[in-house]
């Protein structure tokens, strides 16, 4: 996230903080083939997993949409 513009960084940070209140917000999509979810933030994608038992969210990728799934 170090190379992001300040405006984009703030939008992503806001979405990450919101995940602590709602792990599966409106607009998130379950990824096919695994236990993860995708959340759009403009041209960027947050890919994450939810561990309901431990009440934890694991963000494993924050990338531009062209690079997010490769």
Structure description:
With 70 residues, the chain is α+β, with helices and mostly antiparallel strands. The protein has 1 helix and 4 strands.
Quick overview of this protein structure:
By secondary structure, the protein is α+β, with helices and mostly antiparallel strands.
Which descriptors would you attach to this protein?
four-stranded antiparallel β-sheet; 70 residues
Biggest sheet architecture: 4 strands, antiparallel
Spatial extent as radius of gyration:
12 Å
Number of helices: 1
Residue-averaged pLDDT, rounded? 91
Pick out the low-confidence regions. Answer: none
First and last CA, distance: 18 Å
List the helices and strands and how they pair.
Layout: H1 6-19, E1 29-30, E2 36-41, E3 44-51, E4 56-64
Antiparallel strand pairs: 1-2, 2-3, 3-4
């Amino acid at each position: 996230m170090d190379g992001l513009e300040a405006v984009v960084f703030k939008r992503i940070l806001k979405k990450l903080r919101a995940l602590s209140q709602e792990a599966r917000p409106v607009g998130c999509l379950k990824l096919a083939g695994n236990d993860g979810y995708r959340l759009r933030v403009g041209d960027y994608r947050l890919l994450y997993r939810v561990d309901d038992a431990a009440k934890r969210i694991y963000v494993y990728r924050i990338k531009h949409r062209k690079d997010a799934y490769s």
